[in-house]
Amino acid sequence: MSSKLAKIEKRTAYLLILPSVLLVFSIILFPIFSNIWISFKNVELKDLRIPEPRAKKLVKSIKDTPNKIKVIYKLRNSSLTQEITNVKFKDKYPDNIEPTNLDKRCEFKRKSLLCELGNWPKKYRENLEIVFQNTNNQEVSKKEIKSYNPKLSGKSQNILLTYEFTLNNFKKVIKDKAFIDLLSTTFYYTFFGTIGAIVFGILAAQMVNQKFFGRTFMRSVLLFPYVAPVVALAYTWELLLDPTSGTLNNLLINYQIIDGPINLLGQKYVTLNILGFDFKLRLALTTVIIFEIWRYFPLAFLFILARLQAVPKELYEAADVDGANPIQKFLNITLPQILAVISILFMIRFIWNFNKFEDIFLLTGGASGTRTLPINVYQQGFSIGDIGMGSAVSIVIVVFLLIFMFIYFKLLGKRVDEN
Amino acid sequence: MKIKNILTYCFISSLFLFSLICIWKILVTLQGIELINFNFNKLFIFGIILCVINLLIGKKFNLNIKLIILALLFSIFDYFISINLPIWYSFGIFLISLFFFNTIKNYDKNFLSKNHSSQKLFFNFLTLFGITLFSFVILFPFYMMLVTSFKTQALLLLNPLDFSINFAQGLPELFKSYFVVFKDYNFGRYMLTSTIVSLGTVVITLIFAIPAAYAVARLNFFGKNFLSTSILIIYLFPAIVLVIPLYTIFSQLGLRNSIEGLLIVYTATTLPVAIYMLQGYFKSIPKELEEAGIIDGQNWLGIIFKIILPLSLPAISSVALYVFMIAWNEFLFSLMFLDRPNTFTLSRAIQFLNIGAETPRQYLMAGSVVVTLPILIIFVYFEKYLVSGLTAGSVKG
Questions:
Q1: Dihedral of the CA atoms B22, B23, B26, B30 (nearest 10)?
Q2: pTM of the prediction?
Q3: Cα B284 from chain centroid (whole Å)
Q4: Is the domain B180-393 a CATH 3.40.50.2020 member?
């Protein structure tokens, strides 16, 4: 009895999860695997269009013979690179119409014209001319003949489905001189973006955790950058930071803080002189990181605040009795309490920042030293049009991601053990 | 009373006052008023003097009268060192100094002689300063977005610092950019598309996620642990590694430039987090309720619809709002999959506006306001649900 119930339960469970599993499998897992497939192929954006046999139908009347009509099919292979094999052609005609001259490849049966046009090489073009006549010697209606559209079919090799593989994409990715630069930019961006978001998150959470007028309002406001659409925010920042008409530069010049405008998003390096030493700062990258911090510190704030509110008040009261100062209280009570949240946050944000595409894409498009791995996927795949290369870069990302996830779950497992 | 404490007090207080004044001056500058100097030296020293006076008076006086007098003194001083400024500017200075002296009115010799009072002071001001600065830094871009949409290109180029709104020109003139954006740039259509896509994603995601989450939370089956771990792992996979294969597959299937394609992708990418959030909540519902349902002769479907769903309405609203937010804000897939303007979502449309040749910036900002405002209104209105969604989702983006 109970085993029967268990069976029913099992079956119901599979039934309930099946749709989700199928959908997620086909849209997320399958693409990740096909990434591997594509990355070993030499595919370009223009190869994605499947070659099609096409026909344009022209109908012409013949002088002095209204009962006859000439039909011209302009046939062509839509692909400039691939051949189409076994092309078949079909067109319909109204009653009482018959062809007078028929191509060898065609036959006319039951009001339809059927042709076996064989193989078409790339860029193939041909004009197929057929004269039709009305069997009752009546005038042929051009309009009626025009109203039918020919149907063509043919087989072509889908470059994605062939078994030709190459290692060139990966060779190109790794041999690329810019690859090290790409990696260092990505890690620089990811690391400082994550640390910055967490530091500001802690500061904001500390602030909001105290009682003051307008605290709930403040909490909502702090989350604004996180919930608003990235497109709107990125373009607003772009306008704010614009070197000629941007508000920030004009304000700084107005108050004589800087002499001339600084192109914060378009300048790769800026040399800072601190205590007699020259520092080269990656300016555009730093600006992008600041945007990143601005946009994502709310998340850290939200998590840390939730944790802070759960810290027992007695701990602070005890510390007050012991005469601890605010810094000691923060270091000895608050920090240990939020450390677990911070480590999880760090891993999650690190993974997400590593894959961040939109923010940089919208602010700089990857120019002036802000090209990270995800930006490179887009540029390789869609700007240059080399889908295979783009996939290879995606695979590099996935490999890094798996390493991060391994560390993350190790950490998570350790925490579970501790509890 | 320690010298160190007094020095910290004077220095920090005056610096805080000065930074408040700076923010006010920046805002005033953005109203098109010429102001080229923060007057750091004068204001800072006068601030210190007033802080010392405040300390010396202590509680000998009625505190309210004290703070009004000090604030007045400060405003008058500021009025004399800055020339030709409107009266509302000085009034603002007065209000700020009133607020400032209100916060320090309780400090007297006794307070400063206590242990750690300089650190306490420092952190009090740091908090106040932090709140002011954070609000300013966060709200400023939103403010710029809104105000730019009310200006015209010519005015913006004439004086890039003048963001005053001229109400005298009448509402139609003021909202001109919005009329243009909706009429000439078809934003009504894009908004409709965005709404349909976002709501559609919410509905489909819930239809898929609720049964699956129920199964994961309640039923025993082979591979359950594996499934719950994979949900988390899949959730961490970013869109950028899916883009190329999905692009190739969708191009060959003819699903690009279609709302259906977008719906499928959005649903699949939000499903893992939706299942993850829902199953956590379902687990917290007492099992006895369901057992009562089984005794009443309900089948699984009945249990989900009649017991689980009504009880988990708050969790479902969180998930729904969260999924709506993701779908509304989504950019990467809409950039990849949509190239025909008749299928654009709002985000894609704004990006298209920006790459278009020299679109006046007020239109760009009007478009940005159009895409931002709904989500902010929803956020403020349903904050409780959305915040719990954000925390439980831990979170994408």
A1: -160
A2: 0.86
A3: 31
A4: no
